[in-house]
Each structure stands twice: as structure tokens, then as C-alpha cells.
Amino acid sequence: MIFLVAAVLLLGVLVGAAAHLTLPVVVPAATAIALWLLVFAIRERRREH
């Protein structure tokens, strides 16, 4: 759960900073966070079953 909270906080910081950063910087960072959340969701779903 702490990883999910950290990911959401990091995403919030990046979204806030996105107004000041260029697109080639924001897109890879957002992609990395999205992949992290996807891996987390898959691991959590597997643990439930």
C-alpha cells in the first residue's frame, strides 16, 4: 500500500511540474509511473487469489 501512495504522490508532483517541463521529459516519467502502477495492480490481484 505504501508503494501505491508513493506512486500517487510522485505522479502528483510530476503533473504539477509538467507545466514547467518539456513533453519529452514528462512522457517517459509518466510512462514509468504508469508501468509501476500496472505492475503493482497485477501483483495485488495475484495475491488476492
Automatic annotation (TrEMBL):
It comes from the Bacteria. The keyword Transmembrane helix applies. The chain crosses the membrane at residues 27-43. Keywords: Membrane, Transmembrane, Transmembrane helix. This is Small hydrophobic membrane protein. It comes from Streptomyces roseoverticillatus.
